[in-house]
Amino acid sequence: MSSGKHLGKGSSKPVLPDDGKLRLFSMRFCPYAERAHLVLNAKKVPYHTVYINLTEKPEWLVEVSPLLKVPALQLPGEKGEPSLIESLIIAEYLDEKYPQNPLLPKDPLKRAEDKILLERFSAVTNAFMKILFQSTGLDDYWLALEIFEKELVKRGTPFFSGDRPGFVDYMIWPWLERLAVIGFILEDSYNFDAKRFPRIAKLIDLLKADDVVKSFYATPEQHIEFWRGRKSGNTNYDLLA
Amino acid sequence: MSSGKHLGKGSSKPVLPDDGKLRLFSMRFCPYAERAHLVLNAKKVPYHTVYINLTEKPEWLVEVSPLLKVPALQLPGEKGEPSLIESLIIAEYLDEKYPQNPLLPKDPLKRAEDKILLERFSAVTNAFMKILFQSTGLDDYWLALEIFEKELVKRGTPFFSGDRPGFVDYMIWPWLERLAVIGFILEDSYNFDAKRFPRIAKLIDLLKADDVVKSFYATPEQHIEFWRGRKSGNTNYDLLA
User: Fold this and answer.
1) N or C: which end of chain A has fewer CB within 10 A?
2) Same domain, B68 and B134
3) Given a cut of 50, is residue A184 above it in pLDDT?
4) Is residue B54 situated within a structural domain?
């Protein structure tokens, strides 16, 4: 299932080996799905990926993801082979189930503070979508990102989790990886300012060099290419296949 | 602080005793705030309540809840007296911090499934708001509630958590307590059907008799009275004070 081809309407449901491995239903350019890939890779948990064409979804998707969402993580080792949805819930499940390379802090207060921070990240993701589909909202985007710049100053560490990447870092990374897409959409008005966001700029450099991030990385050019297609109504899901 | 009076614009910040007790900033009729009260009461954690007038918020609210949201739970025992926001994050924090009367399951899969279920509850809360402010959306409300009816059938227990109320039960209760408000808004078209929702109907009866629910209960008439005021632009926050 690692050919990277996205399965769509009319496709046969893939027959996966009965090896008990987790099954991640994903889309290669979905930032939410990327969160699940990152956590699985950070944990070195072996899994099968099934990529889904989100424009023309396969009829069998409902069997593994009743709301037709990705990411969906199917657990063949559990009774009834249940599936989990919602990227943050999947990520926290994996962190609790697989203790190696722990991502969320153990302290209840620190956990809660990281979750509140991620809740506030929706201001960034909302502004991102507005830029992509309405070509407005850049100011809102920078304002929302500033919350994270300030939080890094407050925490006084290179990563949100300290000296190495953790939960917040991986959960927000997919949008940092896509910063160039904003530049593509807004062209001349795009003005990422490393002086305004020195900690975020540094975080981006550090994460780009992180093995987990590198395990599921697409270049700015690839993201732009994907969005160019999507904007023109001709989404090329298999760009990296 | 238990007089129940809501503090508004121009009010002095209440001076609370330096007793280390948690401080809950709340509004008596806010269903999200009710979640925090229920968990605190379920855990028998002593706390101070400060009720906030949400129409004319006190100037000092920003000090304890920077986004001016309720519920906000301030933790005077922790360094810097931090505040937590977001009802589900507050509830999970309390459940992790205070192990007595555990509410979420310990098993990572069951925890994730309960969280996904609560994520889906937003369809109920969204439909509720639509009914309140646009007088439409009743069909959507029943459709969303049906997910919960079916889940109770699937789980085969009176409560979502088994034989006694737990996390999901207390998190959804505030909206079940307010069912009568829908009847008030929609009048003749309101058609809660206990035959369509036998498990939910039974759950409501059971929860009404639960000591934790009783510790923060308002009657249908009181909720209707509150909403009658709110709809007419004359919100009476202190109805129960």
Assistant:
1) C
2) no
3) yes
4) yes
